[in-house]
Target: DNA recombination protein RmuC homolog
Amino acid sequence: MERLAHEIATAGPGMIGLGVVLLLALLAAIVIAAFRRGTGRRADTLERELQNLVRAQTEMQGRMATMAELFGNRQAELDASLGTRLDGLSRRIGSTLHQQHQTTHENLRRLQERLAVIDAAQNNIQSLARDVVGLQAILSNKQTRGAFGQGRMETIIADALPAGTFRFQATLSNGTRPDCVVDMPNGAPPLVIDAKFPLEAWNALRDAQDDDAKRAASQRFRRDLDTHIRDISGKYLLPGETQDTAFLFVPSESIFADIHEHFEASVQRAHAARVVIVSPTLLLLSIQVVQAVMKDQRMREQAHLIQGEVAHLIGDLGRLNERVEKLNSHFSQARQDVEQIRVSTGKIARRGERIGALEFETRADPAADRNDNPSTPDEADDPATSGVGRMKLRVVDED
Model:
């Protein structure tokens, strides 16, 4: 009974009526069985129990109705709450999906931009790889490698020196042809520059993997460098025809630094053989020094012309000084004339003032006036200043 009541209580509103019917049927069956088994003595007891059961059933129906109403309200509240939560969840899911869509779109756009940059970089890398392969092909050929070093040397020489002061592949008296000959000023012998650096042995040293291979490549490079230094000293250093020092051009600053760092003995042998190992920067500096010497020679050659121009300039300056002195004398004479004009105008002004004041008096000594101012003209013949017609006007005050 308790299990049945619990199932009825936990059942939905639609199952409550069915539970009540089943419960009533069960109670009726119990009562009928009790009547059949009981005796007359137990009839009253069963009747009381039946009344108690009927009363309990009525109470249970009331409680079940209350529970059904409560379950109905709770179900409605649950439906409303679930609807509200589902609506909020749907809005949040929609907003989240929209934000994720925007974020995904932005990430895809950035990814496309980065892929474009990567494609451009990959194209540059491929182009660089082709250039490196081409450079490797150039350096693998001795003739082409020599042309590469000579091309750099010729570019530096042609940019730094004026035309006509250097020669490429010139032939010396012994039949040798150095890469470049720079004509020195003041009739000095030309300077020889060689660009045939043993780059093949250097590449073998650079590509060596283990210590034995590096040692063998180092010995080969040292041997080739010493041989090339002896060749330059023997072929290009001709007394009276070339300078007593020649340049060995190295087409790379890094190779030049490595030679001075790891092959000091070869550098010392080059100095002893009067062969100077130069990098592109040192060659440019040396050529600039030669250019300065050439410029100084040209200035010395033109010194007599400059002196002649200075002499002409001094003559012009003397004539200008004479003309200034003449002009100064003219200014002095004009200044004296102006002073005389000022004296005359002063006298005229004073006479005008006397005439305006009616002061006509006879002069006692006209010569004294002339002596006081010798620069004034002779006024004896002037009727205005002579004694003829001169009168004295007296003003008499009348009472």
